[in-house]
């Protein structure tokens, strides 16, 4: 989201604008997955300590890539932007070398900065355990992954290229999923009185909050659109630019992207984690808010 283009807060926080950003990020994520799928699974890059002697880093090759990339980006103030969340803990990253930009205050800070709202460790886990194997043909029964032996199809030695793509995919997924905070803020402000009783109940009523933010029809449309986009973006053309028809189930094995893996990723991980972010944000939405403001919001319920 371009927070500095002069757009006003109500415009930036409109559900239409935020959903537009989520739709645009679908394109980014699909293209980046197509790039990652060009390389083998390369399991070694996800094993903690596998390159310890070479890089002097206890974590995995990928975590080292994240640390090094994010250290550089932190200097350029990437993580001062409200929609950017590093995988490396902020206190291990360098400070920006230029003055931070001033952003309009869109999110409620006590909620946005609460540690439970950052789900990057869960993103890293599902990505490494489920998505990379899925798109590189390991363990999903596609032609690329038939062999259970670690052969050339599972380890092509392109550790730098694979991890570079992984970092890009992870950062895009993280932006997408943490956008849940903007969705939540928008929904909360449009009807605070609906949310307040469930936030204030002891313990907070997470199921009721999840019920309020869930929009099944939006999710259903998203999954159809995603499959269509993956089919179009991953389509093959001959040298004359004519589209070569490829059956959906063969797309993964033809070096493009496995449609089921992309749709399954959104259905099983991206949407549920976005909803967790939305609910966790709401749970802390009233932290430190004066009672007079809460009373004011509750008047809307009676009106
Ligand atoms: O668009 C919304 O209203 C959202 O909350 C985002 C989102 C999603 O992750 O795409 C999550 C929950 C809703 O059920 C629908 C879609």
From TrEMBL:
Segments of skewed composition (Basic and acidic residues): 146-155
Localization per Swiss-Prot or TrEMBL: Cytoplasm
UniProt subunit comment: Homodimer.
GO BP field: chorismate metabolic process; L-phenylalanine biosynthetic process; tyrosine biosynthetic process
Lineage of source species: Eukaryota, Fungi, Dikarya, Basidiomycota, Agaricomycotina
Pathway(s) per entry: Metabolic intermediate biosynthesis; prephenate biosynthesis; prephenate from chorismate: step 1/1
GO cellular component terms listed in the entry, alphabetical order: cytoplasm
PROSITE patterns named among the record's database cross-references: CHORISMATE_MUT_3 (PS51169)
EC number: 5.4.99.5
InterPro entries linked to this entry: Chorismate_II_sf, Chorismate_mutase_AroQ_euk, CM_AroQ_sf_eucaryotic
Annotated organism of origin: Kwoniella shandongensis
Name of the featured protein: Chorismate mutase
Gene Ontology molecular function terms on file: chorismate mutase activity
Catalytic reaction list: chorismate = prephenate
Keywords, alphabetical: Amino-acid biosynthesis, Aromatic amino acid biosynthesis, Cytoplasm, Isomerase, Phenylalanine biosynthesis, Tyrosine biosynthesis
Region feature Disordered, mapped onto this chain: 140-160
